[in-house]
Amino acid sequence: MDKKTxxxxxxxxxxxxxDEIKTFENHYLVCEGGKIQGVFPEIPEKFSxxxxxxxxxxxxxxxxxxxxxHAPQYAFRSVGMDEELLEWLxxxxxxxxxxxxxxxxxxxxxxxxxxxxxxxxxxxxCMFGTLHPEATLLLMEKMEATGLVTFVxxxxxxxxxxxxxxxxxxxxxxxxxxxxxxAKGKFKRTHPILTPRFIPSCSDGLMEELGRIRRxxxxxVQSHLSENQxxxxxxxKLCPDASCYGDAYLRWGMLGGELPAIMAHCVYSGETERRLxxxxxxxxxxxxxxxxxxxxxxxxxxxxxxxxxxxxxxSDVAGGTTASMLRCVTDAISVSKLWxxxxxxxxxxxxxxxxxFLGTKGGGAFFGKAGSFxxxxxxxxxxxxxxxxxxxxxxxxxxxxxxxxYLGDDRDVLHKYVAGERLF
Length: 424
Ligand code: GUN
Ligand code: FE
Fold this sequence. Notes:
Elements: E1 6-17, E2 20-32, E3 35-40, E4 52-62, E5 64-70, H1 85-98, H2 103-119, E6 122-128, H3 133-146, E7 149-153, E8 155-156, H4 169-183, E9 190-192, E10 195-196, H5 204-217, E11 221-225, H6 229-238, H7 245-250, E12 261-265, H8 271-280, E13 283-286, H9 288-293, H10 301-306, E14 310-313, H11 325-343, H12 352-364, E15 381-384, H13 397-407, E16 413-418, E17 421-422
Parallel strand pairs: 1-4, 5-6, 6-7, 7-9, 8-10, 11-12, 12-13, 13-14
Antiparallel strand pairs: 1-2, 2-3, 4-15, 15-16, 16-17
Bound molecules: guanine (GUN) and fe (iii) ion.
């Protein structure tokens, strides 16, 4: 029988919608050919004879999607967390990213990153590399070897950047094509994504070139949007004709539409910007830890959800100190409480089911059917180990999941499956 056809017995939790976590104690999760068939109290007749793994008493949940992180920044995560975005980029992020011209350094740094991503609770991710085509291909090779499904982008930046980390418009377009050609036909689960860093780093001429490449290669796009007040004021000066920051992407076809887009942060997205994102099906990557560390502010996610925006979660390493999606889920709840208490009493905090949904099915939607155990979904599965966090009395399955989200970490993932393939 195909290795991607199996049954897991355990205490199963997953989301179908924002408002509820489905829980099934001592049930059977059936996967056939890498796709979920369903959750059953007994093994259905049709699947008798399918190999069954007995994880009785253990939590079994869908894998998490990290919709936004910077692979080259993993090396310095949690160092220098006392600056705001624009100073932090100059002082920390740009100098570190410039090092990836050296492939030996890239090999060491991306090796550490890939190993940690493999071990953790993330099963799918969308990440920035650096502007270097070779190092970005190396990152793609390493991600491919982890077994995770990822989108990886060579970064584009041709203005307002230090000499050590800048291309001309022509170089940027040429290097993008070289990177795309280098990746062509080479990977099964690692996909290219167009990555203009953000408007301040990309001239109109470069955006026009990238728009052409996007259409020709049918590429999704990822970037940053309305993260910080200083950045927004800067974009207003750089693009005086744009009705809002989001419009500065939209005019180059970079806000979504037929080819999808992920915009990280959206802390200060006003009415017009939110309407444009809704109309274009833009994915908002909410990065709560980065919002705190870089003192950017808090994205009012409940409002966005009420308005029907598509939202997932991102660690934004190294704006976020950790790549753990467990922290990302609980920090999304925490920052929403501060927003409610300090800014808007009508905007209730996110609940555990809502934050869990965003970390799994919300971000997973960027990959199609991922992040849930409904029939037809990709079999991205985590078997969790609660032995580090024992408890003396009774907790419901829902409560056990909740305390795992808060108290567990990436070390506590016992087994991980991505699209039905067991990684460990
Ligand atoms: N905006 C442009 N570049 C970056 C980056 O590397 N991190 C974050 N958080 N925001 C950005
Ligand atoms: Fe970022």
